[in-house]
Predict the structure of CUB domain-containing protein.
Amino acid sequence: MFGTNSKRLDSGVKWGFFSDFMDEMCGQTIDMRSKQIESGRLLLRRPEANGLRNQNCALIIKSPNGKQLVFKFLGIQIETPFGCDRDYIEFFEGYTNNSRSLIGKHCDSLPPMTDFTTAGNQALIAFSRYVQFYHDQFDLTFTAYHRGACSGNEFGCSNGRCIHQDLHCNDFDNCGDGSDYCLLSTGGVVGIVLAAVIILLLIAVVVAFLWYRRRKHNNSQVSGRL
Ligand SMILES: [Ca+2]
């Protein structure tokens, strides 16, 4: 699943989702605290979409309130005949040259089964693209979480992580284990309930109409016999 070229920014929910194109943010920092977000979506577009080729790109993400970060791929297409030697994405703990350490490296046409998580509150995402192979793209979410007791405005994931409650049932795997997915969103449940109420009302109207006609018919028969 890859994002479209239409940019979907903050949906209006204060602690909701934020989306951006990584290829427009090379060398920049996403400070989740200042943006007042608990999660976001990061898209790397094919160079055809933005006119950029052979683009290596790195950006820093800082989570709010010292929380850890979990990265989950929605879609990925980073592959060359040379494996992960030339085109790849890397996740680092920290971001300075001296202090950063590699969390994981990935290249494939399928999202990895596992997520990538930080131990601290800062991560560096670095994408490397070889000049010959420029069709790479990916789509991922990043989410702030912590372990321990969840507060009242948090959702407790099955894997022991606490994420903001607004991320529950938002159609994205923010927990990293899928436990915040819902079969039906809140809007879906409301729609089904409304539809059921309308159907019941229609049935009640039809039954009342039939009862009224039958009663009127019976009354006319009684009147005819008199
Ligand atoms: Ca979610």
